[in-house]
Amino acid sequence: MTASITEASASAGASTRLDALDLLEAEAIHIIREVVAEFERPVLLFSGGKDSVVVLHLAAKAFRPGRVPFPVLHVDTGHNFPEVLAFRDETVERLGVRLEVARVQDYLDDGRLAERADGTRNPLQTRPLLDAIAAGRHDAVFGGARRDEDKARAKERIISLRDEFGAWDPRNQRPELWSLYNGRHTPGQHVRAFPISNWTELDVWRYLEREQIPLPPLYFAHERDVFRRDGMWRAVGDSSLPRPDETVERKRVRYRTVGDLSCTGAVESDAADLAAIVREVAASTITERGATRADDRLSEAAMEDRKKDGYF
Amino acid sequence: MTDTLTPALTALVAQPDEDAPRATSLFRFATAGSVDDGKSTLVGRLLHDAKAILADQLEQIERTSRERGFGHGTGFDFALLTDGLRAEREQGITIDVAYRYFSTGERSFVLADCPGHVQYTRNMVTGSTTADAVVVLVDARHGVLEQTRRHLAVVALLGVPHLVVAVNKIDLLGFDEDAFRRVEADALAAAAALGIPGTHVIPVSALEGDNVVERSARTPWYDGPALLDLLGSLPAAAELAPEAEPFRLPVQLVIRPQGGLAPDLAADPDAVAALRDHRALAGRVASGRIAVGDAVRVEPGGHVTRVTGIRVAGEPADEAIAPQSVSLSLADDVDAARGAHVVAVSHRVEPVREFEAELFQLDRRTLRIGDRVLVKHGTAAVPAIIAAVTAMRDLDTFELVDADRLEANEIGRVRLRLAAELPVEPYAVSREAGSFLVIEPADGATLAAGIVLPAP
């Protein structure tokens, strides 16, 4: 009962007015605790990307001084940036959480999945994800999706029921009332839980800055060999090679999202720290997915179709 | 869906101000009204004029507009911003509440865009339960219709702090003051009859942008603020002195790390010693304020004890206020688990086994006397029986009339009998302690949204 002896007894400043980030943080922690209280085997989808980093940070706060009471799951496309995988491993070590990995490569090797003609592996993640959820008997899956990302996500619930095929049925969603989340489900069903649904890209960056949360180095401006494709700067890597007509240039770039090498583009930037990124994002005239995600440019309903198939 | 605009695309691209001050408050509002009222256009206009639409989104809308034959050249359909799903586009309808985000310098907004023509009760209730304000659209040419009255009634029943009536398409009436004043008088009368305090009525043209973000020179007779200025100045529920209310905390779970301390604490022998017996009740402060040393009572059970430690978002703190997520250490090892409520010792709550409630029937199924359901209140879920259906609202007059069942989209009164005591309080006293879900035990569906009525 004497928890505060060894930690700085910094007042949370209750007498000052709560700002938007305080309110979003309080809401997210409430959601995370609700899911942990009501489900047997939750898991967090953790890619090392900034949104899942924020959710994991919030989970650590929700249960402090205890540790995060659920594992994290990474769907490894085999095309991930090595810096991000290293960051992933450091983070789970630092927070003392267990890491589960589902590998797209395993499915390609034994023929359960086939490489796509365009070389993009993002759409291939769905099957290993659903298999890992079933194998881990996970009845709740946390994700870092935000409603401001996409038109289909704008209609997603915070607690979203999925059938055994992982499918999202937008016509049959439960109404979400007050802060009373209804996560009841039948065997075979699971829920996806999105604690930062109401955060915007800028909120995420401001929170990362406020909390000084570590991120993969890719997010900060750095020199890199890149080539131009589909209006984006693409990194040169094993799974992302320029065609003969594409020229490689050395540019100062950073990433606004961290997907896999084969479909995520970089933006030219000098923003080398969190404060600079916050300024850059605040002044941006292009959304993060529009700027950097080839997979969302496939069609207007690309995200909707992937979600119905069980994507995040 | 034929409202189109034809400004040059380049002029529409958002140009956010790099030096804008940081958003410091959060305001949630819902929009209610049908496509015919121009709601999609208003939402699109609000997002656009607040510079919340970025270049690639505009480009996509323009491309889609052109593909579908809307507009000509640079023209595009603002409604496309708000109808997201393929099924909706194919059928020209909106099937669910969509959430939108934008920000002015001082405030971040969460907009719940509620479709008005299908399942209007379900959608509007969903969008309004967490709203600080509801913006109800009225077509200036048609004035206050039955649907408007239903929207206002939902606002009244749910106790939304602020009501804004946007009288749209005032341009089609030549910005005529008399026309506006007639609609305004009707809207204010309807709101007053329902007991809604502080109603704001604004003449707007969503299509042309009058009084949406900028005050219009074409309505010199209107001396109030533009819609966005109004939404920027109304106090959010979280700013309406929540500390004045009694302290309430529904317990979500118990944090008892024992051997499983966070690694940074586990590496510190002093922390390990100090936290050996740590046990704290975690939850979100529903109302009021709590400080270390305060006396509290735990319901059910009525055990009185004292707060010995507080953590806000995991870090030690001296005090906390609604709606922070906290954990509380108590002086006595009270047998409190998920579903319990910690309340200020001065606050008398009588847990009950039976209570009267107003229900919004949201599911397609009919609710009948004798139905066995689950009631989810705070963090507790207990079996319950519909002991009586006493009345329902006439959907036109909103008067209570006799009923013995509730069908989809109906609002009515019931008496619920519970398998275990719950510390419910009238919704009019506390939004948090007075709201609950009615759940179908077999498939887990949410059947109805409920608000607790004062004991007779």
UniProtKB/TrEMBL annotation, chain A:
SUPFAM superfamilies: Adenine nucleotide alpha hydrolases-like. This is Sulfate adenylyltransferase subunit 2. Residues 42-265 form the Phosphoadenosine phosphosulphate reductase domain. It holds the Pfam family PAPS_reduct. One of its GO terms (molecular function) is ATP binding. Residues 293-312 are annotated as: Disordered. GO terms for biological process: sulfate assimilation.
From TrEMBL, chain B:
Its EC number is 2.7.7.4. GO terms for biological process: sulfur compound metabolic process. One of its GO terms (molecular function) is ATP binding. It comes from the Bacteria. SUPFAM superfamilies: EF-Tu/eEF-1alpha/eIF2-gamma C-terminal domain, P-loop containing nucleoside triphosphate hydrolases, Translation proteins. PANTHER family: TRANSLATION FACTOR (PTHR23115). This is sulfate adenylyltransferase.
